[in-house]
Design goal:
12 strands; alpha+beta; 2 helices; two-stranded antiparallel ribbon; rod-shaped
């Protein structure tokens, strides 16, 4: 007889870590399938065997009152085999197979703590995503600024360089810079009917219309 037993060991709750010291333990389901089997057999397999039949006759060794030979209680031919008879051995191969599974379901008793931990985990994930987006934005802005300054100075990677793609999408438009400056217009004079007209000089005028205005010459009046 063979005794077999299946033992199911419950593991701890599965713990998920989201960073920032946030850890949540969820319910655990343990599903344990098992297969058991046994086989027994005898080798070599012999369904029959020859059983010897011995001679147990006792006809001699003593005499009766009439002088006839009778048995004396001792087998006359000990060990003599008269014949063999076939006898079934009853030998069989034994096989057994067992299939099944065991299952346990473990849940925490306070579900509100699980809900709070899930909310904290969601907030931590959103925070991590925002931090990653900020880092990405800082990287792209720094790349744009540095690449733009280098391109304005005529510095760039060779098109066959593996780093050419770093600044490949940066575009620098034509930029015209006008430094602060001052225009001065010298004074001039014109003669009209014997009179001299003096044009005032403008120094450091901040009115662009005065700097670019055309000069006008007055015609002399003719008296009758």
């Amino acid at each position: 007889m063979t005794n077999q037993a299946i033992q199911v060991l419950q593991g701890p709750y599965i713990t998920n870590t989201y960073g920032g010291g946030i850890q949540c333990q969820g319910p655990t389901r343990n599903f344990t399938p098992y297969v058991t089997g046994s086989a027994s057999a005898s080798k070599p397999y012999e369904p029959y065997y020859n059983d010897p039949v011995y001679d147990i006759s006792d006809n001699e060794g003593a005499f009766n009152d009439d002088g006839d030979a009778i048995g004396d209680g001792i087998i006359d031919n000990p060990g003599r085999i008269l014949f063999h008879k076939k006898t079934r051995t009853g030998q069989k191969d034994n096989y057994s197979l067992g299939l099944g599974f065991s299952m346990t379901w473990s849940t925490p008793t306070d579900k509100s703590l699980q809900d709070l931990c899930k909310k904290a985990a969601t907030a931590q994930i959103e925070l991590n995503q925002q931090l990653a987006a900020n880092k990405r934005l800082d990287f792209e802005i720094a790349r744009l600024k540095n690449c733009g300054q280098l391109l304005k100075q005529g510095i760039s990677f060779h098109p066959k360089s593996p780093y050419y793609s770093v600044c490949a999408d940066v575009v620098v438009n034509s930029v015209t810079e006008i430094k602060p400056h001052v225009h001065s217009i010298p004074s001039s004079s014109s003669s009209v009917s014997g009179k001299q007209t003096v044009m005032p000089s403008l120094h450091g005028s901040s009115d662009a219309a005065l700097l670019g205005g055309p000069l006008q010459t007055l015609r002399p009046r003719v008296s009758p």
